[in-house]
Task: structure prediction
Amino acid sequence: MDKGIVKIGLLGIGTIGSGVVTLLKKNGRAISEKIDVDLVLEKVVDRDPAKLQSLGLPEETITTKAADVLEDPEIDVVIELIGGIEPARSMIIAALDNDKHVVTANKDLIASHGEELLAIARDKNLNIYYEASVGGGIPLIRPLKQSLVADRIHRLVGIVNGTTNYIFTRMDQDNLSLEDALLEAQKRGFAESDPSNDIEGRDAAYKLIIMSGLAFSSSIEPDQVHVEGIGGVTYEDIAYAREIGYAVKLLAIGEKLPAGLALRVHPALVPLAHPLAAVLNEFNAIYIEGDAVGEVMLYGRGAGAMPTATAVLADVAEAARSIHHQCVDTMIEGTFHKASFVPIKDIRTRFYLRFLADDRPGVLSALANAFGNEQVSLDMVIQKRSFGDTAEIVLVTHLVREEAFQKALEKVMALPAIKPNPSMIRLLG
Ligand code: HSE
Result:
């Protein structure tokens, strides 16, 4: 077969877009040798002409009009790197309508409209590739869709947000407050200027929806994920967690329980011996448990221009292979069935709790009674320090249903000796 040519249109020149242009210049020839197809960047679109000029591409390649890509019959593959829901969604639909394969890194869009867009693509015998939407440069979508298809995955646990992992690492290693660690993350370019999606767990939740949809072949809506951010975690919690053998991480957890899928994002204590505890700074990792393969961990850089560009261009290469060999690989796309979901109140887990209490006789026994009366069994109770007539107490429970724990916690907090605003962090079991 002759060597093929596949023409690409790129929508959006932000961090990843510039990375794609740079990586294609640097490794285009090597990719072409591997796939026997030349990838040609035909047109690049951005609203900002200055950004386009800065790429050093020929004048005829750059344009501020998306239609120049979407309606160009020469273009085979459209890379969408605009982000957000609209106009990205409409542009992807227009690209499919014009018979173009689509590659995207847009996690918000795939998490919330992925099934709709994949169905449009399937009807047209085209595909949408989204390896770059989760875990930056870590190969993750393809392993979930293809390599592990013979397994029944019963749980996946991910550190999928680099900003929060960097913050927890700095809090742990340098005793920084959350605010100072966030400033450090912003200074070093890991955190966005508005990091609320990261800090509040939404970024991780979108990624969990995409991974879980594939791992469990299920249709998932954003409101089926329980999401808590990292705002309540202090460096005292991180230090005490380490003393008792745990690291604190923002986890995205998808589990297939007998009653249905349980999906949640929240900070968690991870045993120091667990491989996820060793994932530091801005790195991401996904730990997958399957019935046949056992445990698999995928680790690497979850963001950044060049790692993410690797994933984008791998998808373009896959599209180019299927175009050149005239076989569309829609059959390996995920299938998404209706699922039942287990609400957080029914999930059984262990809890770490830290709070202040009056330092006087009978407080610990009143506390133990309040938990005992609600059938919450304590694994560990430590009085950390006393200052004046106040004591700081840290405890860890045995496994307990969330609803039972919350009810007991309410009773404990109503005790006159206990001060308000406890820190509560779940444990990874
Ligand atoms: N803001 C994300 C993170 C990167 O901190 O991991 C993009 O998904």
Remarks:
- The CA atoms of residues 76 and 100 lie 5 Å apart.
- Residues 161-163, 198, 203, 302-303 surround L-homoserine (CB under 6 Å).
- DSSP finds 14 helices and 17 strands in the chain.
